[in-house]
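2024-03-11 09:14:02 INFO queue: dequeued item p-hydroxyphenylacetate 3-hydroxylase, reductase component, len=161
2024-03-11 09:14:02 INFO validating residues
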Amino acid sequence: MSDPVPERLRAALGRFATGVTIVTARAADGAPVGLTVNSFNSVSLQPPLVLWSLALQSRALPVFQTAAHYAIHVLAADQQALAERFARRDVDRWAQQPWQPSAEGVPLLPGCAAVFECRSRSRYPEGDHVILVGEVLRCRHDEARAPLLYHGGRFYTGLPT
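2024-03-11 09:14:37 INFO prediction written
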């Protein structure tokens, strides 16, 4: 067993397949904010709670530190390009991206496998990330849409290439 140096730890964690999400909110000036996240998990059914984590060096951190609401979108297999765009820093993630506001004004993306509309409940700084826990106010899913997966640094769609 080797010590968990960052490179080795990242490689070992990469052996765990995850879903791919985009988390969205509105900045104080009303601008939509969103980023690709694969650290999403359920916490509790009663009350309905989910969590995700955000790097402390993320430019979106100030928005999510103060946002009262956000939405977590579980991406569908055909949304890999969307995941890649929202993971990049050098593009306008919202250019020509359709969305509708939730009841609380949070940007909701179309075509996702599932969407969780959340009220921010708590934040826990841990290591180089902050863990955000949200109370699910509303959720929906589309059983016909297979999820986009991420494993070992690669996307898996289950779609023919």
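2024-03-11 09:14:37 INFO annotate: The longest helix spans residues 6-13.
2024-03-11 09:14:38 INFO item closed
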